[in-house]
């Protein structure tokens, strides 16, 4: 069964069995998006979210359709469990911590703006109380007996006070709003900076973990903005609370029985906003993978690097269909959400109307029974309205704080994971150099994602590797595809650490030295080199010194990138990306020469950079360029005294290497010079003879044809 069929079936099953609702009920929108694992029912909506949904037991027994690539993702279970905890009680419990967190974030990002927000927020609360007291005074003056012109005149000072209170309230509101609006972007920017640091400092192995990638996507798509939301909505909640406190204080001073009426008036609003926020949150959470797929597919459609192949292989309709498949799921989920939101709104509105009626009836009753005077009843109506507005703000904010808090917690977990997976700093500096590099009994398995259950886990990429790389020599790693050459190169370059065993520069275990310091002493010409959207100069100089023209010329000459640059319209200053105006696109081989120049540039000083690793550096080069390149590589070892590690399938060039290491299925099966390995036989001689025979046959064929 194809993956998406399974996902769709699963979505339908989840609707039928998991929610206890009919198939077209809105209970299963997120599963319709195909994101939830088969054994997970959709979470129970509504305030009683802690209870298991009806039908969950059925679902447990149901044989779900396997769709491991898309659905078997245990971290969704974590989120569903967390979303299910979103009861009112859970929200209330988390509120102090979340608001506290928001205040800390706000204080760190903009202490002045946070202080201004607090001062003007308090001012608003005080002005609200003042306005209510003035309202009561005005009504008392007017309604103490039958209203007359004199009474209205007598009420004028109170009216002036009321007007002043309202002006003060408006001014405080505007100033608090300004401070808050200044605070939010600062908080978002601070979050973005932390996020950028986390994702660029984390070890490269983290990107092999799909769970980490999901978190990174959520952080990038929503997490940073939600930090701003958390601060804004927390301030809103606190401001609303001040408004309520003001109204409640004034009402309570009139008559304590008026206090519970505020609560009655607000309950429906509470329910509506809580339900709506949780629905939205769950949808976004469950659509993460769908949105990520859509984003990926759309990138393939718009990227100029894929544009040609997309057309050659007539991939357009297929990609569009794939996009539609995910987009339809998302749309369906969003449409269901819209319906559910409307239902919640209608229900909340109706219940709100009933509650207001109950409040007014209660006020009438109190008035008739002489519990409160007419003026107090009038002021109470105004106070209830004020409190309703403020409570509305609080309730919406509380839900938003809770919702933002979930995203922020997710982002903080990402930061925590990233911190835990960021190589430790402050270790000993890397050794200046080495007489030899020793790889001792190294075993390495690529990290698996949280979703991998281990049943079909691949074996180690390297197993029991022992090796010595002498200083100033060229060491070639050869072997068939997947034999572990690049993995060994990544371990040698300090990108990955061995699971067991050690990589040592003389007596120093590289696990004990500062990884960034180590990497600064290694130059790498990567197999999957990046086409940096920068100028040709920046592509070569990268993190190295900029103002050394001789060094640049040497590097470009060694990589034969000088001829590439000579043909560029603006030489070294040509921008190498066609997406920009006046950008230029080098050919694949030209890019490879620039990438090689980057490696030579970094490794120019062999005392500072004693190791150069070149992973298939000539795969896109023509025969002449390839030959020249290998000559340069050997010359580099001779000139700088650096050790050169070369990975290549071109065995004719490997012949020049001082040591050739043959890998097979992650193990070193032979090592020695070309002559020794040819004499010994085995994989190396087999591969060599295959390539040599192909050339001999071609030459013979050409001779006969001639
Ligand atoms: N990032 C990764 N995550 C998981 N497995 C990986 C990763 N990179 C490589 N592998 C696996 O590790 C094994 C060794 O791969 P490696 O890239 O080191 O081989 P190689 O000898 O360089 O191959 P080639 O000649 O094709 O470049 C392979 O089985 C491969 O599937």
TrEMBL record:
Chain residue ranges for the region called Disordered: 1-70
Membrane-topology annotation of the record: Multi-pass membrane protein
GO cellular component terms listed in the entry, alphabetical order: plasma membrane
Gene Ontology MF annotations: ABC-type oligopeptide transporter activity; ATP binding; ATP hydrolysis activity
Domain ABC transporter: residue ranges: 437-690
Residues that span the membrane, as ranges: 114-134, 154-176, 235-252, 258-279, 342-368
Name listed for the protein in its UniProt record: ATP-binding cassette, subfamily B/ATP-binding cassette, subfamily C
Organism the protein comes from: Nocardiopsis flavescens
Lineage: Bacteria, Bacillati, Actinomycetota, Actinomycetes, Streptosporangiales
């Amino acid at each position: 069964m194809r993956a998406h069929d399974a996902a769709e079936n699963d979505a339908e099953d989840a609707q039928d069995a998991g929610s206890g609702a009919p198939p077209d009920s809105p209970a299963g929108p997120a599963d319709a998006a195909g994101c939830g694992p088969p054994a997970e029912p959709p979470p129970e909506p509504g305030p009683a979210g802690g209870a298991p949904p009806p039908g969950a037991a059925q679902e447990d027994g149901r044989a779900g359709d396997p769709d491991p690539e898309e659905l078997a993702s245990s971290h969704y279970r974590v989120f569903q469990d967390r979303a299910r905890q979103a009861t009112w009680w859970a929200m209330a419990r988390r509120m102090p911590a979340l608001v506290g967190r928001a205040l800390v974030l706000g204080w760190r990002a903009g202490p002045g703006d946070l202080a201004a927000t607090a001062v003007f927020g308090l001012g608003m609360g005080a002005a609200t109380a003042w306005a209510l007291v003035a309202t009561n005074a005005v009504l008392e003056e007017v309604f103490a007996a039958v209203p007359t012109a004199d009474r209205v005149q007598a009420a004028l000072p109170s009216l002036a006070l009321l007007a002043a209170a309202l002006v003060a309230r408006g001014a405080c509101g505007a100033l608090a709003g300004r401070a808050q609006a200044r605070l939010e972007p600062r908080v978002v920017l601070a979050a973005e900076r932390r996020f950028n640091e986390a994702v660029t400092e984390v070890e490269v192995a983290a990107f092999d973990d799909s769970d980490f990638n999901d978190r990174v996507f959520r952080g990038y798509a929503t997490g940073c903005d939600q930090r701003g939301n958390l601060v804004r909505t927390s301030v809103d909640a606190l401001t609303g609370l001040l408004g309520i406190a003001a109204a409640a204080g004034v009402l309570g001073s009139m008559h304590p029985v008026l206090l519970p009426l505020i609560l009655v008036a607000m309950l429906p609003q509470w329910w509506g906003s809580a339900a709506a926020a949780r629905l939205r949150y769950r949808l976004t959470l469950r659509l993460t993978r769908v949105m990520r797929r859509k984003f990926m597919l759309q990138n393939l459609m718009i990227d100029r690097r894929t544009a040609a192949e997309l057309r050659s292989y007539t991939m357009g309709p297929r990609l569009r269909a794939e996009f539609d498949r995910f987009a339809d799921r998302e749309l369906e989920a969003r449409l269901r959400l819209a319906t559910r939101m409307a239902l919640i709104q209608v229900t909340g509105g109706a219940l709100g109307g009933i509650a207001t009626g109950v409040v007014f009836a209660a006020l009438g009753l109190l008035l008739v029974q002489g519990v409160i005077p007419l003026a107090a009843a009038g002021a109470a109506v105004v106070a209830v309205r004020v409190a309703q507005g403020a409570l509305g703000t609080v309730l919406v904010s509380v839900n938003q704080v809770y919702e933002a808090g979930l995203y922020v917690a997710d982002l903080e977990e990402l930061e925590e994971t990233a911190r835990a997976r960021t190589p430790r700093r402050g270790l000993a500096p890397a050794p200046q150099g080495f007489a030899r590099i020793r790889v001792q009994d190294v075993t390495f398995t690529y990290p698996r994602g949280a979703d991998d259950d281990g049943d079909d886990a691949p074996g180690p990429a390297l197993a029991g590797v022992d090796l010595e790389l002498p200083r100033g020599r060229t060491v070639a790693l050869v072997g068939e595809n997947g034999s572990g050459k690049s993995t060994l190169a990544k371990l040698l370059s300090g990108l990955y650490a061995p699971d067991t065993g050690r990589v040592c520069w003389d007596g120093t275990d590289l696990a004990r030295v500062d990884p960034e310091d180590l990497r600064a002493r290694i130059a790498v010409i990567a197999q999957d080199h990046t086409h940096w959207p920068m100028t040709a100069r920046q592509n070569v100089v990268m993190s190295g010194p900029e103002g050394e023209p001789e060094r640049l010329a040497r590097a470009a000459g060694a990589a034969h990138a000088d001829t590439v640059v000579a043909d560029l319209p603006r030489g070294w200053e040509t921008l190498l990306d066609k997406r920009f105006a006046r950008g230029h696109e080098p050919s694949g081989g030209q890019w490879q020469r620039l990438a090689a120049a980057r490696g030579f540039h970094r490794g120019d000083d062999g005392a500072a950079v004693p190791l150069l690793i070149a992973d298939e550096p000539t795969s896109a080069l023509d025969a002449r360029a390839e030959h020249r390149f290998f000559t340069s590589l050997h010359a580099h070892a001779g000139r700088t005294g650096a050790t050169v590690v070369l990975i290549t399938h071109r065995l004719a060039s490997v012949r020049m290497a001082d040591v050739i290491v043959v890998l097979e299925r992650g193990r070193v099966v032979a090592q020695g010079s070309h002559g020794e390995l040819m004499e010994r036989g085995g994989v190396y001689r087999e591969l060599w003879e295959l390539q040599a025979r192909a050339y001999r046959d071609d030459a013979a064929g050409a001779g006969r044809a001639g």
